[in-house]
Design brief:
By secondary structure, the protein is an alpha/beta fold. It is built from twelve helices and 13 strands. The longest helix is centred in the C-terminal third of the chain and has 15 residues. The N terminus is likely disordered.
Length: 413
């Protein structure tokens, strides 16, 4: 079948036995990494809500049969949500509501640190309207330590709100490397289920340890960064393209898994680095960052020939090939340097590290001007999530797949 529009032909990449048994609605969907994991486990993605234009285009392109709404969820009435998704009867609702500051309303109307004054309440509203079997929320691990102004743990408030809807609620911080994602990435996952799950969270399937200890017998070795990207076409700065042919066969199980049935490679375009920046990267060894290069290759002040006095210890760090990558954040195009090439990662390399299959295409531009600059200059119509943002914001699909498979086994009991 055709996936993601013309010129992209693949076979359904799902687990045998559970195919399309459960339906999934993704709220705050972004590019769709969370729901993609459930699809890889055998679910059917029936819908999504996403405000950003380019992320919406990515989701819709890769799920052409789904009902995908581009909208600010706070502007949708109860009737609009029910009209769009009620007849589809989603079994599972997913969401990663932004919780920074916990406030989308007037701060004088209550505790701005209370998640009930945040986008989380919209996630609750959708659940209340559509009454799914399962609701799953993911967020940053630090949310588990956050407290409201009256010192009540935020995660307790969230759990209580879900329990009021009649759900059994459990939460845990999960590590992506435990599920075969070649990236050090932790996420807080809250699972709410109508039927109490005996084991809400999946057991780890992989380890990053070189020597398997007794309690880890039976676990696979987690892929490394190089395991994830070594088969991709070798390109230098300014090379590559949005659509490119493979240049070599897959080198390992992980690459074969992500390449399954894809006939083209997408989003593998290197950054247009200056000659000076390429020289700076060439001076770096594994683990080095901008602060470690010789003085004459250091960063210059903006629009100046003078050297900057600021230290950039976290910028442009060259990654070790034989370890999991550091966390792929929304701005990862400026965070990491390829282990062997003198350039930053391409969007596709970031997608591989996040465990997105190669047939999953990211729409919009690879990068955009700083959102802070656009906000300052009033250019809000240009404020979109670029390919790198979409990839970095996503839940790693393989981690989501592990969560889904664990739940499906119990729902099927």
């Amino acid at each position: 079948m055709v996936r993601g529009g013309e010129n992209l032909i693949v076979v359904d990449y799902t687990q045998e036995g559970n195919f399309m048994r459960y339906s999934v609605l993704d709220t705050f969907a972004g590019a769709g990494g969370f729901s993609l994991g459930f699809e890889l486990a055998g679910a059917k993605v029936i819908g999504a809500i996403e405000i950003d234009t380019w992320a919406y285009e990515t989701f819709k392109f890769n799920h052409p049969d789904a009902t995908v709404m581009q909208s600010d969820i706070t502007s949708l009435s109860d009737e609009q949500i029910v009209d769009a998704f009620g007849k589809l009867n989603p079994d599972i609702i997913l969401g990663g509501p932004p919780c920074q500051g916990f406030s989308i309303c007037n701060k004088n109307s209550g505790d701005p640190k209370d998640p009930r004054n945040s986008f989380f309440e919209e996630f609750i509203r959708v659940g209340r309207l559509l009454n799914p079997q399962i609701m799953i929320m993911e967020n940053v691990p630090n949310l588990i330590n956050a407290k409201s102004e009256n010192k009540e743990p935020v995660v307790n408030i969230i759990s209580d709100e879900l329990r009021r809807l009649g759900y059994h609620v459990e939460y845990r911080i999960l590590e992506a490397t435990d599920y075969g994602v070649p990236q050090i990435r932790k996420r807080l996952v809250v699972i709410a289920s109508r039927t109490k799950l005996a084991y809400p969270f999946p057991d780890k399937t992989h380890t990053t340890k070189n020597t398997i200890e007794l309690f880890e017998i039976g676990l696979k070795s987690c892929p490394t960064l190089w395991d994830a990207i070594s088969d991709l076409p070798e390109i230098e700065a300014r090379e590559g393209a949005e659509e490119i042919n493979y240049s070599k066969p897959p080198q390992n199980e992980y690459q074969s898994f992500l390449r399954k049935d894809a006939i083209k490679l997408f989003n593998h375009k290197a950054m247009n680095h200056s000659k000076r920046l390429v020289q700076r990267f060439a001076a770096m060894s594994w683990g080095d960052s901008t602060s470690d290069v010789p003085d004459h290759l250091g960063p210059l002040k903006r629009n100046s020939t003078e050297f900057s006095e600021k230290s950039y210890d976290q910028n442009n760090r060259r990654m070790h090939p034989n370890r999991p990558c550091h966390t792929i954040a929304a701005s990862f195009y400026a965070n990491f340097v390829h282990p062997y090439k003198n350039r930053n990662f391409t969007a596709r390399e970031g997608a591989r590290i996040q465990s997105f299959p190669d047939w999953y295409v990211f729409k919009g531009k690879p990068t955009v001007v700083s959102h802070k600059l656009l906000q300052r200059e009033g250019r809000l119509d240009e404020k979109h999530l670029c390919q790198y943002n979409q990839i970095g914001n996503a839940v790693p699909p393989l981690m989501a797949k592990a969560i889904a498979e664990n739940i499906f086994k119990q729902l099927g009991d």
